[in-house]
Design brief:
Distance between the termini: 37 Å
Structural class: mainly alpha
Number of strands: 0
Number of helices: 15
């Protein structure tokens, strides 16, 4: 992937090269894994404007908003390596086909993911301003620990007691903590104060909440049945349970489980009993995008930063747009 310097996509080239450089120490049998990981990152970033990978686009938006420039290479490398690691772990936990390392065993993918996290954790000590390293290292450690705990809690299956607040807590502990953590790392690296750190963390968390809600809706409606198959507690399922009478909730959970293997039942539920819950989930996602847009207004001080933050919001809003709402309306709601 090649872009002209200064073009909207040039940060993607910087990210790929930063990750490539960070993986140079991988030796022996790890070398092919490193090459495949970088190739995957290149392919994903090359398929759009970079908004697909929020773990990278959020630091870019925050740093550009605060300083009008790309994040330092060490931060791009840390974000890219972390994204790759959790991509591997998420696919294996969900039982989905690997996006890369498909010819490797599950054990090799797990080891590779652990080395990616170790690589990411090493980037601040290698490249950041020395006085900032303890704070940066602590933020990254806290983020990884919170996200990992959230991933383990996500193994709790959907049942008739699942409530929207349970789903919210799970998303905050996974996607929310990750994007808020990368936003905070970026603010510290940019030398900002506590008030700005709060604003950028809010931006990351609100954006993460919206993106996860949209992802769950898209998965359900597109026919990708991982959530149904794994009995994942999604917001749509929680809203549907909230609307159902207590005596009917166990049967609703059973139908959701069966819909993973019955396409006609899945479509029937989407068009029928799940429709109000889908409307509620879309509205909640839009509200989180309102929060992200307002948070961005408080720290974005450059056109470059605004372009990236707007692109992130537009990308997330896209599946929700029905002709009645635009990003500008979301930001002004």
């Amino acid at each position: 992937m090649k872009h002209q310097a200064g073009s909207p996509g040039d940060w993607r080239c910087a990210a790929i090269e930063s990750v490539r450089a960070a993986l140079v120490p991988w030796r022996g049998q790890l070398r092919p894994l490193a090459a495949q990981a970088v190739d995957h990152l290149d392919a994903v970033l090359g398929a759009g404007d970079g908004s697909q990978i929020a773990a990278l686009a959020v630091p870019v938006a925050v740093h550009a908003g605060l300083r009008g420039s790309h994040p330092p290479p060490w931060l791009l490398a840390a974000a890219g390596a972390t994204y790759l690691a959790w991509s591997v772990l998420d696919n294996d936990m969900d039982g989905d086909p690997p996006r890369f390392w498909s010819e490797s065993s599950a054990a090799e993918r797990s080891i590779g993911a652990h080395v990616l996290i170790a690589t990411a954790a090493a980037q601040a000590p290698i490249g950041a301003v020395p006085s900032l390293v303890p704070t940066l290292a602590q933020i990254y450690l806290d983020m990884v620990a919170t996200v990992t705990d959230g991933q383990l809690r996500a193994e709790d299956r959907l049942d008739e007691q699942t409530a929207p607040e349970d789903v919210t807590a799970g998303i905050e502990a996974r996607s929310g903590a990750m994007l808020a953590g990368f936003a905070d790392l970026t603010a510290v690296a940019a030398g900002t104060g506590a008030d700005i750190r709060w604003a950028v963390r809010r931006f990351g968390r609100e954006l993460a909440m919206a993106r996860q809600l949209v992802n769950d809706i898209t998965e359900l409606e597109s026919g990708r049945t991982s959530d149904l198959r794994n009995e994942t507690a999604t917001m749509t399922a929680a809203f549907a349970l909230q609307r159902a009478a207590a005596a009917d909730r166990a049967a609703l959970v059973d139908r959701l489980r069966a819909a993973a293997f019955d396409e006609s039942l899945r479509r029937q539920m989407i068009d029928g009993e799940l429709q109000p819950a889908l409307v509620d989930t879309r509205m909640l996602a839009r509200l989180h995008l309102v929060g992200a847009a307002r948070a961005a207004e408080s720290f974005v001080g450059s056109e470059k930063g605004r372009a990236v933050s707007d692109a992130l919001i537009d990308y997330t809003l896209g599946p929700l747009v029905d002709g009645a709402i635009t990003r500008a309306q979301a930001g002004n709601a």
